[in-house]
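Still learning. Show one?

>
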Amino acid sequence: MFKGSIPAVVTPFENGKVDVGRYAEHLEWMIESGSQGVVTCGSTGESATLSHDEHKDVIGITVKTVNGRIKVIAGTGSNSTDEAIDLTRAAKDLGADGALLLSPYYNKPTQEGIYRHYMKVADSVEIPQILYNVPGRTASNVLPETVARLAVHQNIVGIKEATGSLEQASDVRALCPEAFLLLSGDDAINYPLLTVGGSGSISVTANVMPVEMAKMHDLFFDGKLDEALEIHFKMREVTKAMFFETNPVPAKTALAMMGRIKEDVRLPLCGMSEANKKRLEEVLKKYSLVN
């Protein structure tokens, strides 16, 4: 259902507003580069500072631009269960192929609370739903046993696992049905996660190296493991650079240096420090991504 390289795309802004033209161009580049899907309005898309109207507009623009050529997964998570249901229902109505639901943040629910949250969304909206576990942003960890409880629901089809732990990813894979999708949410371990039964990656790095990320996945699934691993290592320095500061600031700065979007991010995010920007530019030059 959702497999291979799936860029978690940035939301370009200009003068504080969504830059629809550049966003559509960015989506076209992701498609032309061999991506098998996109995630819109995720963490990388700055969903936290999009208004609800903007959030829905961006999902709609994504669906219209992609026009069925690849899968569209809409970020619809919230720390309010009712709000998550509303956004997920909107994603379905707008034609998204699936929804990505961040585990509730700030509230710090128990595992039972996390379970009930996801189950209520899944019971309320009939659309394929992917759990998103990223403790570094949410302050809670969706444990493998909780994932296994959720995996039996027909609308919960997979998880974006962003703990960075291959042990936890392996436990999820072992405890869940074979058809349940395990997707990497940490570019540093995209290849290793594939080797323990992963289906693909929801990637930040793919915003700036979409061809390479797609090719790495394609080679892996074609059984050309050594060649896939070589590309994984090739992207290593760019992947690290994407996290010199908080995502998506480095990705947007890189894309601005490449002439693809404006550098704009929304407060409380802000532009990169000059020192980190210089480091980023040096990496991009090394990879011939900028002159």
Q: What stands out?
A: The chain is about 45% helix and 15% strand.
